[in-house]
Amino acid sequence: MGLPTLEFSDSLLDSPEFRERLQCHEIELERTNRFIKDLIKDGNMLISALNSLSLAVQRFSRSLQEFQFECIGDAETDDEINIGELKVDQNCFYHASPVLAVRSAYVRHDLTCFFCSSVLEGVFSEGKKQFDKETERYYSLQEKYLSVSSKKKESQLHEADSQMNKDRKIFYDASLQYVFKIQEVQERKKFEFVEPLLAFLQGLFTSYHEGYELACEFEPYKQQLQFNLQNARNNFESTRAEVERLMKRIRSAEDDFKAPSCFTMEGFLYIQEKRPLGSVWTRYYCTYEKSSKMFTMGNTEPNGVVNGTPEMFKLRSCVRRKTDSIDKRFCFDIEVVERHGVITLQALSEANRRLWMEAMDGKEPSDFFYCFTAFLNEAGFNFVKKCVELVETRGLTTLGLYRTGGVNSKVQRLMTSVFASSDMQLDAESWDNKTITSGLKDYFRCLAEPLLTYRLHKEFIRAAKYDDQKHRVRAIHALVHRLPDRNRAMLDVLAKHLLRVSSHSNQNLMTVSNLGMIFGPTLMRSQEETVAAMMNIKFQNIVVEIIIENHDKVLSARRPQRESSVFSSALDICPSGRFVHFKYFLCTTCEKGCCFISLAINVATPYRDAKALYSCEAEHSHELSFPQGALFCNVCPSVEPGWLQATYKGKTGLIPENYVTFI
């Protein structure tokens, strides 16, 4: 579902898969552009052809009903779904009287402005042509460069290297700019297309004789859509800045930059192929997986698309090729199990050869980086609690709380003074609210691992993509209780505070949605910095929103996950009390008794009494509901891990083991 993401790092690698993903985006933009032109044409027909008003209105409405946006990523937020499903009741058009000419000039002006401001026109007219031109030029120059003899003078070789570096940077800049423009257009179309269309519909409705009634009916939908549009715009603005920073960071990366990939190493290599009259160098797209030692090479067309089925070999050894032994630069030899002799490969540069040699157990050195980070220790807990105490004492009603940042120099001075001393004192007179809130955000941002952990990042994102809101809350509740104890305790402190902040949203304008947008990227981060991860920022915001809004549910005592979450079962207690029979399992997916299993478990443990530590509401007919302090008898282990069988008020059923204590 949706379009594949375009990674800036892939544009440097320029792999066949990157070209295919790029082509998907180009096709989608062409389709969107055609649709916009058709929609404008139908809208003008609606205004001009008053004699055939009914037919024109139906065509316009039908075009509108059939169109739906495709967004980047494998799921969409509720805002994007509402924007993409731009549905308007067709009856509103059919029952309107034909007095459209009164407002025709105004509506036509709206359409013209919308067409002129369309961001899709320039992508293919200039950007694509420039990118294709630079691609053809670069690979032509690259082949000439790699064919330079190593016996030429050193000055000539340095000159060739310098010129190739300049040409490579020009190509990389063109590729990065083109990918950035496509990403920008794909995101901007969600609101820059819908906003003029929304204005057009509003003007159309008010032009009819029954305009007032139509406008009243349209108002709730318009308000909801405006809210969705604002959220989409906010998500775009926050994502665009991150994507642009990533693009600049990759643009300034060193030549030996290794792009994130499922392979240990991949990229283009020139392979020496022996022929009867000599040898030729053919360009292949190669991949290498270090764990399995599988080396794959596929012959490519000039445009980068793989031609035919790639060949796969198991690597035996890899040796650097000396310059004086071959009339080519950047070469190395490999031996594979499936072939006799060596295969001579030519990398694209010295840095590229170093990466291949490192991947294949070469002797190239690795680079290590060190950075100072914050920790979830006692000092961190004290700092957060003191910040929360100060904010709640004097600043819960401050306008734009947590949105408005403090002065960087003051924030740095605060962090230095607090964590450098042992008494952890925060003088309320010395620090204003903006500095305190910025320091609190910086602390979570500088943790060695985000509060919601890298390990559970993808599962939190998956939970936020569920359609059912109750299912989202339950899934996030279960994931929160899989966090380490310190992380969960810190999350409890922060979420409880942010819930209090949102309760004053009438004064500070900081709703749960706004707080989620601020703390989403702070509490959750992907371990890899990719465009795909940045497109999930909107779902990170949703996770934090759910944790804040449902604090009492999400951070309450944990219910164990039961195997019967997929199957619901029927209990049958033997008169002897020694066996528990599960007569059958009913598949809740199809709600038919498709799986019948008969089990008998010998309960050798003697019965005991227990007392409830927390209240619990049954989710299935064979579970017990009970208040805090309830007393149970005949308590013994059940067949499901984490659950006990017990009797309460004459009814026997299952209770969570960690909700009770034995007496």
Automatic annotation (TrEMBL):
Domain spans labelled Rho-GAP: 374-555
PROSITE patterns on file: PH_DOMAIN, RHOGAP, SH3
Protein name, per record: Rho GTPase activating protein 42a
Gene Ontology MF terms in the entry: GTPase activator activity
This protein's UniProt keywords: Coiled coil, GTPase activation, SH3 domain
Domain PH: start-end pairs: 262-365
Cross-referenced PANTHER family: OLIGOPHRENIN 1, RHO GTPASE-ACTIVATING PROTEIN 42
One Gene Ontology term from the biological process aspect of the record: signal transduction
Lineage: Eukaryota, Metazoa, Chordata, Craniata, Vertebrata
Gene Ontology cellular component list: cytoplasm
Sections of the chain in a coiled coil: 222-256
Domain SH3, residue spans: 605-663
InterPro entries: AH/BAR_dom_sf, BAR_dom, GRAF_fam, PH-like_dom_sf, PH_domain, PH_GRAF, Rho_GTPase_activation_prot, RhoGAP_dom
